Amino acid sequence: MDDLKAKYLGQIADAGDEDALEAIRLAAVGKKGEVALKMRELGKMTPEERQVAGPALNALKDEINSALTAKKTALGDAALDERLRSEWLDVTLPARDRRQGSIHPVSQASEELTAIFAELGFSVAEGPRIETDWHNFDALNIPSHHPARAEMDTFYLHRVAGDNRPPNVLRTHTSPVQIRSMELQGAPIRIICPGGVYRADYDQTHTPMFHQVEGLAIDKDISMANLKWVLEEFVKAYFEVDGVELRFRASHFPFTEPSAEVDIRCSWEGGQLKIGEGDDWMEILGSGMVHPKVIAAGGIDPEVYQGFAFGIGIDRLAMLKYGIPDLRAFFDSDLRWLRHYGFAALDMPNLHGGLSR
Ligand code: PHE
């Protein structure tokens, strides 16, 4: 046993990376490792021998395991140190050759879509990113225990001590601004609200913070046909190209009835994201006729007024228009990326001058 111990502790100390460490782990304490084989021999021993050898083998196994863990941590620390040594930017360097910052693609897309909706008669409304449970859910016809709450991967804030109300949330969508705007302005109303929203989700097309633009139009004679026309006009103007193909899909949201989701035809071929070709569809928005309960929650009479609402993913619009395949890059704050995809600060998008030229 002393030989085994010396052998494996020596190997662990010499291991150069995690792969080597894993190989040692398997050979030593893996299911078919040397320690396991020794344990199997316990069966052939006398009870007296076993009483000594059993605990000793277990102790050996523990010792090897803790040496493995310690070494793994040390290797991880060393790798991090090496990264910190080799990857760095001197943030104190004067910006000699370029004195001007650039506009982030998400900001650019927000400016562009605001210009388009302004032309269509929508004004810009705002709401807080820390939202009450009522505005984010109940008022939108999502009572507690509704499955839609679980699907949203909500970030909850700490409750203030002694306060019995449900905790505030980071808004999971811009839809609470529908309620706030109705409360504030009454009907008729035509607003959009671009802004940040939060959900605990992270992959190529999802980040924990992302952006939506909410739209709300309430009046006495608004129909689904108006919704479809507005969305189509918007998409045509935004993408500045012919041949953008849309797909309206019947869907469900607690706050609209009927509801539709809209996808855009795209292709991911060769790691490139392209719009208007290919066999893939990217979902960019949810929409529908505002549920009477939601209109009532906003303080407006649903017997008199009706309307439509939509929520568009701004980051995805930017990905599609500028061919950016991975959403996570938007939030890396990599200066080289920002310079490549960024827009000139003084180039304000408007429909007459051209949105993105
Ligand atoms: N709030 C919905 C979402 O985040 C989108 C939506 C907005 C759907 C307005 C319908 C009407 O998924």
TrEMBL record:
Pfam families: Phe_tRNA-synt_N (PF02912), tRNA-synt_2d (PF01409)
Keywords: Aminoacyl-tRNA synthetase, ATP-binding, Cytoplasm, Ligase, Magnesium, Metal-binding, Nucleotide-binding, Protein biosynthesis
EC class of the enzyme, as a word: ligase
InterPro entries per UniProt: aa-tRNA-synth_II, aa-tRNA-synth_II/BPL/LPL, Phe-tRNA-synth_IIc_asu, Phe-tRNA_ligase_II_N, Phe_tRNA_ligase_alpha1_bac, Phenylalanyl-tRNA_Synthase, tRNA-bd_arm
All copies of domain Aminoacyl-transfer RNA synthetases class-II family profile, residue ranges: 116-349
EC number annotated for this UniProt entry: 6.1.1.20
Gene3D superfamilies: Bira Bifunctional Protein, Domain 2
Protein's UniProt keywords contain Glycosyltransferase: no
Binding site for Mg(2+): 257
One Gene Ontology molecular-function label: phenylalanine-tRNA ligase activity
Cross-referenced SUPFAM superfamilies: Class II aaRS and biotin synthetases, tRNA-binding arm
Listed transmembrane segments: none
Swiss-Prot/TrEMBL catalytic activity: tRNA(Phe) + L-phenylalanine + ATP = L-phenylalanyl-tRNA(Phe) + AMP + diphosphate + H(+)
CDD domains in the cross-refs: PheRS_alpha_core
Subcellular location: Cytoplasm
Cofactor(s) this protein requires: Mg(2+)
The record's free-text note on cofactor binding: Binds 2 magnesium ions per tetramer.
PANTHER family linked to this entry: PHENYLALANINE--TRNA LIGASE, MITOCHONDRIAL (PTHR11538:SF41), PHENYLALANYL-TRNA SYNTHETASE (PTHR11538)
Subunit organization: Tetramer of two alpha and two beta subunits.
Family, similarity comment: Belongs to the class-II aminoacyl-tRNA synthetase family. Phe-tRNA synthetase alpha subunit type 1 subfamily.
Protein name (database record): Phenylalanine--tRNA ligase alpha subunit
Species of provenance: Ruegeria spongiae
